Each structure stands twice: as structure tokens, then as C-alpha cells.
Amino acid sequence: MLYQEWRKILIKQKGLLVIAMMIILKIALTLQQGYDSDLIINRNPEGYSAYIKLYEGKLTKAKEQQLQDEYYAVVHATAELDGLARQWKDGIIGQDVYEQTSKQYYERIKNNAVFNVVYNQYYYAKEAPEERYLMDERGWSTLLAHSRPDFVLLLCLIIVLTPLFCYEYESGMDSLLLSSSRGKYQTGVVKLAIGAMLVMTITVLFTVIEYFCLDGMVGLKNGSFPLQSLKFFANSDYPITLNQAFLILLLVRMLGAALFAGCISLTGIITKNTVITLFISSVLIFLPYILFPSKPWLYYLPLPSGLLAGTGYLWGTVYESAYNDQGSVEKIVQFQAIGRKTFLFLIAGYAIEMALFYLYSLKKYSKYMLKRRLMHRKRNKSPLSLSLLIICCLIISGCEHAGKAKDIFTFDARDARNYGETAGYAIKLDEENNIITAKSIDTGEEFLLTREPFIQKGDISAIFVRDGWCYYVTQTLGTEGIRIYGIDLKDFRQKLIYNSVPENTEDFFGIASGQQDLEEMSRNTSLIYCLVLNENYIYFVVNSELVKINRNTGRETIIARDVKGGMSLVYYNGDIYYIDHQYRLSVYKEQEDNVHALDSLYTDNFRIENGSLHYRSLLEDKQILTYKIAQ
Question: Keyword Cytoplasm, does the record have it (predicted)?
Fold first, then answer.
């Protein structure tokens, strides 16, 4: 009988097919959603990983001294490099000495922002060095510091388990099964046992998939470190390691899955209808996440929602800082920690509740009074399976790669950042008044282009004019992300080209509020220096970073971190020429997708005309020389 029931739910009722599709969907969504990170780290993950690899682990006196020495060197790197450049220009030192000595300062300038992130982690660990280690928090924080539900897992459990009892009622098999003592009791026990084992196995599988996806994306090393090494768990009372926390999370979710299986089974036995069981089960599991997205009540309800989230039982008290009427900062409790005794009491209560669910389900099933059915409703599962397969294909199907056609266009950021001409109009950005004006070259008529203040948000930091369009970028200082708009000069229709500004201020299903603190606001205080667009990509420069955005996928990539601020930058036929921190002339080749420095070209000013690059050479007493660009 056990084999027959397994075969029925996995093969006949398409359970294996649903599980396989949901696994594919889970992997795709996990990889697409990524992991918790920081805007600064995202812009320089290599530099952050290098620092973490150097300093990770328990804090020691020697490691503290190394961090403090590196902090001093990073803070003074710009001044040291500028002084070294002056000595080289004045002839005090030679080119070889300059290049050799400037490398260390150059690297520190590129990695300045991510080192500050590591240095903040050091100050956090310094407060309690015995239970706080330096480590890469990104993967573990994603795994342990969120209470949002796993929609794919919950949907999979509901779809797979609903036919367990409903199928017998809707197919008329219950009349035959319940006509014997064995069918009354043994079948019920076997079905409930199979349901519990199946949902716990699926839950373990989905949790392990999330673990390995995160491990592959960002790494889940240092599982033996204390839980308090993650800043989110600074107030947690559990003296356990990260691996132990993950094991507790897994066990709690398994208990929640078994309780959820009892709820679905009992609902199916009472309603004897698939649609009603699907609806009631969905409401029972999803409603608590909607009503209590950031409250500890989620974990006290006698429902499986808190157990399937799992992580909140290990959290400490979470505070939110806010200004009171007197202007001082005070902490407001966002999430009250669940004590260890309370946690054990809740687990015991859930176990008793689960046992009662299963016993009552068995009682209800075995005492069902046989009734002759006038009609048997046929059920067709193929539309549901086909719909799920189509959804999976749509989600995991990738976008086509952008083409590599050469873009014949030249743009000098120094001359055209605030001005450009196209389609018979001269376009100008007035940064002081935050407006863009257009002047007809033929008639001299001047008018305002940005005439939709309710659509445009933020300050305009740069424009880019070409092919009858005026593009401009807006940003709000202190807020993450940018918006890029385009204005068609034929009909002056405005279009949103790209948007990376978070639309919500908080995680709807999580604890952490999306409101920025002062430290986060300081990361977004630099205006974009220039903006360039072609058919496939968007380029812009902010701070010292040259950023590329794929217009098809929206993916953002840092392609250079050494752009010298205030210097010349030219976009020429799809390639970007710029001056780096060592005053070398460097070029990003779009078709090759790499950056390299041009040999022996040291300059502080250049321009490109008719295939020739004219530059002021710092090696030849600032003479104007010409470099032929290979076509």
C-alpha cells in the first residue's frame, strides 16, 4: 500500500512533474534575486573580497594594527599620489620611479570605498572580539536575516499535497477504500505519513538549493564563526555558530512543513474539493505574512507561517533609530526578540498542535459515512501542469545578448555634458535651475524641454544629445539609484529609459526597513559626471567609476574604477577614452569588453578629431602630440 500511495501522488497525480518545475523555478529565482549586499561593495566586489580575505577571522592585536595602518594609508593615498605626480612633472623623479611607486597609492584610491566598509566591520567586531569575527556577511545574511516567505516552496507544497485526499473524493475511490477496515484506517495513516515525509523532503531540498546557490554566487565560508559575527544578530542571545543556526532553521522549517501538511490534509478531508482546499490553504499560509510582515506575532500564531519562515526565532531585538521632538536620536523597537525558553515552549506547542491535526484528520477520514454519488466530477491536471511549465520557461528564459555593431559617434564629455545640437535644436542644461532648454537653430525660438515636473524626479546632473533625442539623468542626493529619460525632439514626447531607484521604502515581507541611515546616505552624494547612450548600452561616470548598463537586461557593470575626475573623457565609435589616476590615457573597447592603457601616453588633456587623438604630453614638456587611432 505504501508503494501504491507513493506512486499515486508522485506519478499519477503529477507530483514529480510539479516538484521538478518548482525546483527549476526556485533555482532561477534565487540566482536572479541575488544576495544581500551594499551599493559600495557591488561597485567593487573584487576589492572587498581581497580585503576580507586578508583580515577575516578573529580580531587580534596584530590584525588591528594592520587595519589601522591601512586606514592611514588609504586616507592619505590621494595626497601622496598627487605629490608624487608633481615631483615627476617637475623632473625630481623619473617615469620608472613614478610608475613603480604610484601603484600602491593607485590601488588604495580605487579600493577606498570598500575599505571603509571593512573598517566599519572592524569597529563592530572590536566591541566584542570574542563573539564577533570579521567575515563576508553577504551570503549568510541573505540566508538567515530575512522573514519573507519562500513563495515557490509554499506553492509547491500546496499543489503537490492538495490531491492527497481530494483526489479520492472527486474520483469516487473513497467509496471503495472506506468500505473496509483496512481502507478506513491503514490508508489514512499511510496517506498522512507520506504527506508529512514528502513536504519535509521538499522543504529540505529547497532550503539546500538556496544554500548551494548562495554558496556558488558569493560563498558561504566561515560557517564555524559565531552567529553574532553578522551585524544583524548583534543582539541575539544564542551562543551558536552560523552552521548551527542554519541547522536550526532547517529543522524548524521541517516542523512547519509537517504542520502545513496536516492543515492541507484536514482541509481536504472536510471540504472534499480541490479548489476550496487550494483557496483555504493559500489563505492560511499567506495571510499572516501580509498582516504581520515585520512583527513578532508572525512567530506566535498557531499556524505554520512562522515556522516556514524560521529565521525570526534566532533574531535579537531589532531597533530603528528616529528623531524625537527634542531633536535627539532614540531607538524604537521594530522586532522584539523571542527568548530561548519561549522558543522551546512554542516548538513544543507546535508539535502538540501537529499531532492533534493528524489524529483528527485520521478520525475524520475513517468515520466518513458512505454516500452514493449521483455524478463524478472529472479532473484534468494537464492545464495546471502546462501553465506552470509555461511560467517557468518565461521566467528562466534569458534575454538575447546585445549586438556588437560599431557605433559611429563621437562625444566629448567636457564640451557636451551640458550642451548638444541635434534635429535643428541647440539643447542646454541649466544646472542651477534644474531645467533643460531647446533653441531652434533656424528661428532662434527658445523653450523649455522638461515640462513635466510630476514625472521628472530628482536633480538633472548631465545630458546627452544625439539622433534627434535629448537624454538626461536625474538623481536625488542621498538616495540610491538613478533615472534616465529621453525626449524625442520630433513630438517632444518623454520616455523613461532606465530606472534603478527603489520604488518601495521597506521590505514588505522582511524586518529591515529600507529607510536610509546617515551612513547609507553618504554613499550617494556624488553627481554623475557624464552620460552616454548607444543602441545596446548606457555609460556614465560617477566618482572615479565608469559604469556600463545593458539596456536589454538592465544589468549594471563597473568597467573601470580609475577615472580621474575633471579630466577629458571622449566616447569615440563605441570606445571610451579617459585619463586614469596615474595620468595615463586609457581606453575601454566595447567590442572587446576590456580596458587597457595606451603605451607611454601620459596626459592631462586630449581631444579626438578625424581618427587622430591630440594630447598634451606630460613626458614631452606638455607639447601637443598626435596619436593615430587604429580603425
Answer: no
**CB contact set of 472 (below 8 Å; sequence gap of 6+):** 429, 436, 450, 460, 462, 463, 464, 484, 485, 487, 531
Quick check: pTM over 0.85?
A: no
Residue 283's domain comprises 1-33+146-366
Sign of the torsion angle spanned by Cα atoms 121, 122, 128, 129: positive
Residue 201: in which H helix or E strand, if any?
helix 187-217
Distance CA 515, CA 538 (A): 28
State whether 434 and 287 are in the same domain: no
Does 349 share its domain with 426? no
Total domains, the chain: 3
User: What are the DSSP E strand ranges found in 387-507?
Assistant: 410-412, 419-422, 425-430, 435-440, 446-448, 459-466, 469-475, 483-488, 493-499
Q: H or E element: which one contains 320?
A: strand 318-323
Is pLDDT above 90 for 186? no
* 562 found inside a domain: yes
Measured between alpha carbons, how far is 1 from 213 in angstroms, rounded to an integer?
37
Residue 24 pLDDT: 94
* DSSP string of 17-74, one letter each residue: HHHHHHHHHHHHHHHHH-----HHHHH-HHHHHHHHHHH-BS--HHHHHHHHHHHHHH
pLDDT digits (tens, 9 = 90+) for 211-253: 999 999 988 988 999 999 998 888 888 899 999 999 999 999 9
